[in-house]
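seq as requested:
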Amino acid sequence: MVFAADISAGLLRPLFASRVPAGFPSPAEDFVEGTLDLNRHLIDHPVATFFLRVSGDSMVGAGIFADDLLIVDRSLTAKSNDIVIAVLHGELTVKRLIQEKGRWLLRAENPQYPDFTLPEDAEIWGVVTNAIRDFR
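struct tokens:
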């Protein structure tokens, strides 16, 4: 299912100046740097941005898992090594776009799936700019 981006309603949340260590804990700082609007942080081109929900496990090596929400910008021109949404035989798929030896490949980020040459009739629908994952 594809959802269009709607940034008409901003949602400002506090942004703390201190970073959260992933190693040893440090005392928390009670300093709010400002506010953060995720729409402005994650979406550069609102009219061309869409959200897609992931199914399957072909992109786990890129940190994209089933049920993640992808942010896709259709205004960007895909280049080699971008993660893209491609249309193959009328179906959408997420893969890494690779240019190799003069040809374009779609590469899964899971060794269980083979690379395949981008067919002539395939379309690069958009470039994945972010993934959102629910940890609950």
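The mean pLDDT is 84.
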